[in-house]
Amino acid sequence: MGSQNQAWIQLDECITAYMDEAELSNHKYYKLWHLGFRAMTELGIDAFYSIKSVKLPVNSNLTVTLPANYLKISKVGVFNQQGNVIPLSLNNNLSTAFDLQPTRLAQTQDPSIVTTEQQTGTGWYNYWNGYTLGTLYGVPSGAPFVGSYKIDNANGVIVLSESFSYEYVVLEYVPSPDEGGEYYVPIQFKEAIIAYLRWKDIISMPNSRKGTLGDKQMRRKDFYNERRLAIARFDPVNLTDGYEWNLTNQRISIKS
After folding, report:
1. How high is the pLDDT of residue 101?
2. What digits encode the pLDDT tens for the residues 175-226?
3. 110 with 146, same domain?
4. Where in the sequence is the domain holding 98, given as residue range(s)?
5. What is the pLDDT of residue 212?
6. Per residue in 44-100, pLDDT tens?
7. Contact status, residue 251 vs residue 131, Cβ threshold 8 Å
8. Measured in whole angstroms, how far is the alpha carbon of residue 249 from the centre of its chain?
9. For residues 159-183, average pLDDT
10. Is 215 helix (H, G, I), strand (E, B) or coil?
11. Residues 141 and 135: beta-carbon distance below 8 Å
12. pTM of this prediction?
């Protein structure tokens, strides 16, 4: 039995619950464990994977080597005085050419064309929070532009702009799952994950007494029904949300 952490339960609890229900032996655990992660993706809750935060050194050619277990980016930035992560702006115009070579900067810059990197993204502008104008991430108005980045997944590096002057970056990312690790999911998705395991555990079996076509179709239908219920339970629509939405839109209309 896995442990519950407030409104979250371990993915392991869903797996063992299905194993008990189907009277399966422990030798099937790792097959079901991998199916459990596929269930999280299918349910759209991959955002609930563990987010890892690391401080990485910047290479001499203004690139940063991605961790070996890097799966998906969450945020790239630097620290401010309060310990907040100030995100860099994503810049898809940055070239990934020569990014594994120490001479990358010299080979990707043309001195005959002079441009100024523009401040982009939402991390540095004042924004309307529903009541007044404020600043994001604790950055004062008029703060200097830190820099921008681009991910080169093929070569496993982060490419930084020439304006970046720090010796490190803070990378928050989703790491590849470790077998047997502790991963939590919202408790509302427990039955949906079990239904997915129930379906996918027999999907590749030949049509027989253990995996008939009708049984597979029934389990598939059960999963999508549990998925619909889980999403509705996790993010229900209530009168308070509608009231707040109405007030916010009234203020924006008055401000305009």
Report:
1. 84
2. 877 766 678 888 999 999 999 999 999 988 877 666 788 889 999 999 999 9
3. yes
4. 54-175
5. 83
6. 766 566 688 999 999 999 999 999 988 888 889 999 888 888 888 888 888 888 888
7. yes
8. 29
9. 84
10. helix
11. yes
12. 0.58
Cα–Cα distance for residue pair 89/144, rounded to 1 Å: 13
126 contacts 143 by C-beta, under 8 angstroms: no
Q: Which amino acid, 92?
A: N
- Write down the pLDDT at residue 22: 92
In angstroms, rounded to a whole number, what is the distance separating the alpha carbons of residues 68 and 149? 19
Sign of torsion over alpha carbons 175, 184, 3, 53: positive
Interatomic CA distance for residues 61 and 105, integer angstroms? 6
At 42, list the tokens. 């299918």
Q: How many CB atoms lie within 10 A of CB 133?
A: 11
Residues 149 and 241 in one domain: no
Asked if residue 101 and residue 10 are part of one domain, the reply reads no
**C-beta of residue 147 within 8 angstroms of C-beta of residue 88:** yes
Whether residue 238 sits in one domain with residue 191? yes
Does residue 170 register a pLDDT over 90? yes
The interaxial angle of helices 11-22 and 190-200, nearest 10 deg, is 50
**248 and 136 assigned to the same domain:** no
**H or E stretch covering 50:** none
Closest CA to 62 of 2, 123, 92, 106: 106
Considering the domain architecture, whether residues 68 and 143 belong to the same structural domain is answered as: yes
User: Tokens 């299918």 label which residue?
Assistant: 42
pLDDT for 189 = 93
Tokens found for residue 106: 């010299």
Q: Give dist(CA 162, CA 77) in Å, integer.
A: 15
User: Residue 62 corresponds to which amino acid?
Assistant: L
Question: Cα separation of 176 and 37, whole Å?
Answer: 10
Q: Are 36 and 14 in contact (CB under 8 A)?
A: yes
Q: Is 121 in contact with 87 (CB distance < 8 Å)?
A: yes
